[in-house]
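ok new one. same drill as before - structure tokens go in, u give me an amino acid for every spot. 335 of them this time. try not to just spam alanines like last time pls lmao
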């Protein structure tokens, strides 16, 4: 599916033209301004009817290894067209030589099980700078939610294509959209906690290995607080730029349109625990009247690719297609 010329939407997010007056600079400013949506969007769309990802596609997780871009995602069919039915998501993979033109591998990466009957929100183990973190023997690590109680599952691979479930699954419980980093000899997992009857929050768990993760005593590390945030934190994605930690996150967005939307914001931290949100959030928003992203920008992942940052995100146009496409925004490193 191609977009109309009128829909090619070039953003200078974070409103650099407003000038930050020297109050915020360096790594904070680097991550907050200048995102530009690709004219090639959507870069990944729904598959034909009958495929596992024919009705929903979201939660991209990007990695570059050996000159190849690996884009993991959640895909699902839908039941009756109510928009509220349960969807048995599975994990998919698409690869690319240039980071824009992707080819799907066409099959789920892992089979569903009796307990892990819902595979969603994949994430790869990364180093603090966002690069793929492999073991010394070349083992890849993939994490994802395995069911609606939000169990965190783990799988390993020696090539990024063929995966095997961890016999010790689940490695953590009640943690939606996990995002894992290896920081020195420790592991950090940022995730969404869903308090009953309250807004969702970003939490942090740490430990010496993935089986020993414990909730951080300063949780929650991020909550709904800005005027644009109508409700619910979601999809934390964290990396380190120099001495500054950067978090991309999603919140439901009140743009006074009367339509439920989401948008992407950022926050920065000196230590990955105490966070300050960017005061010009959100930094990435839907395109009105778009054929592929009119209501949701969501479930993002980011890599630095030479002199360019690539931000992959999912989008949505209605409540029937839960998520409709995966898209790309870029910015020059150092802008």
């Amino acid at each position: 599916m191609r977009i109309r010329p009128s829909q090619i939407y070039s953003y200078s997010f974070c409103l650099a033209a407003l000038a930050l007056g020297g109050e915020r600079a360096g790594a904070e400013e680097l991550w907050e301004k200048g995102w530009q949506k690709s004219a090639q969007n959507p870069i990944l769309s729904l598959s034909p009817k009958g495929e596992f990802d024919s009705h929903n596609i979201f939660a991209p997780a990007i990695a570059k290894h050996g000159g190849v871009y690996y884009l993991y995602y959640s895909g699902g069919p839908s039941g009756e067209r109510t928009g509220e039915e349960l969807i048995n998501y599975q994990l998919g993979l698409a690869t690319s030589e240039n980071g824009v033109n992707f080819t799907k591998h066409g099959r789920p990466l892992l089979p569903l099980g009796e307990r892990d009957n819902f595979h969603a929100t994949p994430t790869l183990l990364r180093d603090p700078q966002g690069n793929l973190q492999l073991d010394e023997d070349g083992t890849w690590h993939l994490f994802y939610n395995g069911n609606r109680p939000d169990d965190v599952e783990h799988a390993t691979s020696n090539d990024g294509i063929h995966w095997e479930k961890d016999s010790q699954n689940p490695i953590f419980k009640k943690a939606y959209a996990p995002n894992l980093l290896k920081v020195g000899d420790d592991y950090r997992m940022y995730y969404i906690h869903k308090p009953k009857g309250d807004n969702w929050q970003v939490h942090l768990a740490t430990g010496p290995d993935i089986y020993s993760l414990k909730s951080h005593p300063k949780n929650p590390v991020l909550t709904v607080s800005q005027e644009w945030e109508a409700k619910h934190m979601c999809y934390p994605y964290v990396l380190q730029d120099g001495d500054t930690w950067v978090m991309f996150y999603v919140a439901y967005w009140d743009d006074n349109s009367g339509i439920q939307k989401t948008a992407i914001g950022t926050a920065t931290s000196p230590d990955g625990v105490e966070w300050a949100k960017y005061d010009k959030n959100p930094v990435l928003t839907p395109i009105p009247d778009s054929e592929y992203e009119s209501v949701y920008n969501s479930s993002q992942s980011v890599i630095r690719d030479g002199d360019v940052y690539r931000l992959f995100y999912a989008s949505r146009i209605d409540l029937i297609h839960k998520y409709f496409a995966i898209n790309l925004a870029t910015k020059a490193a150092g802008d």
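The chain has one helix and 21 strands. and btw The first helix runs from residue 27 to 32.
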